[in-house]
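Researcher: We plan to redesign the surface later, but first we want a full-length starting point. Tokens attached.
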């Protein structure tokens, strides 16, 4: 419901009102290609919906079955469009990663929410290129927190953290692979806060 309500508020062109944050915030949307990907998928849905309905009209005889199939496809396409618009809206309105005096707060739309005490942060580093998609080689369990692109920062934790994921599902791991617009800033802020 949160995603659908965010999508409906986007359709009314309500201005964005991000919540104030305490600490240094590092967003994840300015350098992400997720916004463009959403617009491409929405365009493809707008083209696909009429084409598929016309094709079904030719392939399936008129009647209850064709009506049910067409209604199901139309509703699923509309729900996907609403979900994408709402997800984009929530990602834009949340601060991303906030380094406070005692905790790292994570608010990445409806994809991840939670807090990690800075005392639990063991190490942080910037990653680029092929290292960004590597799996954990230290026996750890990574949690990937990115809107679309590969992560550009890796945060190792002293003990596993549990975050809240989509639909309130738990995300559990001892390493956070994150994408932020300013990876050097996040690394510097975490190292300074740990001192």
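Model: Full-length starting sequence:
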């Amino acid at each position: 419901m949160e995603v659908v309500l965010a999508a409906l508020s986007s359709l009314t062109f309500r201005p964005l009102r991000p919540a104030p944050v305490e600490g240094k915030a590092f967003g994840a949307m300015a350098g992400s290609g997720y916004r463009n990907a959403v617009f491409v998928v929405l365009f493809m849905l707008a083209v696909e919906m009429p084409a598929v309905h016309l094709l079904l009209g030719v392939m399936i005889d008129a009647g209850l079955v064709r009506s049910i199939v067409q209604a199901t496809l139309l509703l699923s396409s509309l729900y996907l469009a609403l979900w994408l618009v709402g997800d984009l809206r929530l990602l834009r309105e949340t601060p991303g990663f906030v380094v406070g005096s005692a905790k790292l707060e994570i608010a990445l739309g409806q994809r991840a929410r939670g807090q990690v005490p800075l005392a639990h942060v063991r190490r942080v580093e910037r990653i680029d290129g092929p290292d960004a998609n590597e799996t954990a080689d230290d026996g750890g369990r990574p949690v990937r927190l990115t809107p679309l692109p590969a992560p550009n920062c890796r945060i190792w934790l002293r003990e596993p953290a549990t975050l809240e994921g989509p639909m309130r599902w738990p995300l559990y791991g001892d390493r956070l692979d994150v994408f932020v617009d300013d990876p050097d800033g996040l690394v510097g802020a975490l190292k300074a806060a740990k001192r």
